[in-house]
């Protein structure tokens, strides 16, 4: 089932202790689409300037990714520059040039008709709302990502989007920030109370948690990488693996089960881990189905254990 | 199989956003022993001053904990003061008064003869070495914990202890600090290369990882608490659950399996989570076998998923 994704396509300049790239293909949509396309069809809604390199367009276009909704307008493509330090969980933004992204007015092309899954990547909540309206009632699954900036300056609109999606995907610190709760469990209840049926909490290099409105809970630790070369886009690739897998399940027919969501969380972690192995979207471009299968099986083996145990005969006394 | 633990018993003064305690029962050994005693016999090697409250001694003594090796000497008991902020993963030390702990010379009493498991809690590596020598060749399992201070000022002695134990239990940032590796996997290989057969990496509120010398890997996410009231002692309680479970398995006869270690990691997480639910050792004192069983079963349910999936039919092309 096709996934329509709206958000940024941009040019990233990134420095990490392992190297640097300049004007590399980036933006939430690029990572998301290249991850999700390993599972199902992706329809892009985005904007780039007339300086957007033709080979980047080709890299996207060669996959199961439709680009009719990626507008090209006169001006400069969105650019972001960042630097990571030895602890790759922290980064400094060096610059943000919005370029044509400043006036982005997303429009879902007619050709995308019937998109079953909608992913609102991290953009202004007002634009996310607009896309939800365009998608209409037909969508089978709606999910959003966001960031600290929108919690600070567009809280009401963000709340409105949260009320209208099925799944909220959010970083742990943003869940706390949005709700003002130190307890993650309380933060989770606060967000689920708005209406979404499921909440995914991203924990960076530690993995992700899945909560549902009925109190269900599932944890997927991160895949342990030998080398994190560039964590940029890991969260978007996570969302791509997560929603890509769910779209694949929806394509197979029937309703999504709790088990589908659990496996989706694992696929999210897997795609996030691949994204970190090289700069820009390189690793996602080079990825094969066999490599995905292998990492999935590894994941099963390092999280499963023979659980049966009972402490009954071992009391508290001497 | 009895566990001999050496380390600090002290009086903690702790402030968190949820309250405060003054001169409460603390120290690595108190948390470790009260957690491990839920699984098997614990033999304490420690020192307290003549100001150590009789009721604290009784709280320890009422469990499967032997105190012949807890010396009482003239002077003040070790005291520590700390303050936690809204992000409970960070704390400030307000004061450390070593008191009689400054001249601690650990001695394993004759009465503890035949201890099968030895846990070297976080103390000077030289003292850890001394205890290993006293324990002799008879021990079935030797494990150590440590801290950033010893990595900085007693690195060589710490390395020597690492060479002689079966299991190293260490916080993630300390594994990186000790090896100077940004990549956790490389840090793990660096420590395992010294000789220990297994390495447990503690990740605070995110859970724990288990690595073995053959490349085996297991991840246990943290149990998600509604309220973390006081994280003090969580790492020591983790070690208590981990080694307590292994001691219980050794008591049942036979050699420890990979599966035993995996379940031990889960029991470590469980005990760490209980410790955080109240100030000082209160929660460990009040804990029942049923509560441990229930949390263990919850843990199984939120980490297990039906794994079968294969991406074979879903290629990379259109």
Written overview of the protein:
2 copies of one chain form a homodimer. Chain A has a 9-stranded mixed beta sheet with strand order 5-4-1-8-9-10-11-12-13, with helices on both faces. Chain A has a 4-stranded mixed beta sheet with strand order 3-2-6-7. Helix content of chain A is 37%, strand content 25%. The first copy, chain A, has 318 residues and is of the alpha/beta class. The C terminus of chain A is likely disordered. At the A-B interface, helix 7, strand 13, helix 9 and helix 11 of A face helix 7, strand 13, helix 9 and helix 11 of B.
For this entry, give a set of tags.
UDP-N-acetylmuramoyl-L-alanine:D-glutamate ligase; disordered C terminus; 318 residues; globular; four-stranded mixed sheet; 13 strands; nine-stranded mixed sheet; homodimer; alpha/beta; 11 helices
Number of helices of chain A: 11
Q: Give the helix proportion of chain A (percent range).
A: 25-40%
Largest sheet of chain A: 9 strands, mixed
Total separate domains of chain A: 1
- Which class do the helix and strand fractions of chain A yield? alpha/beta
Order of helices and strands of chain A: EEEHEHEEEEHEHHEHHEEEHHHH
**CATH architecture type of chain A:** 3-Layer(aba) Sandwich
Mean pLDDT of chain A: 93
Q: What is the CATH class of chain A?
A: Alpha Beta
Low-confidence stretches of chain A: 312-318
CATH fold annotation of chain A: UDP-N-acetylmuramoyl-L-alanine:D-glutamate ligase
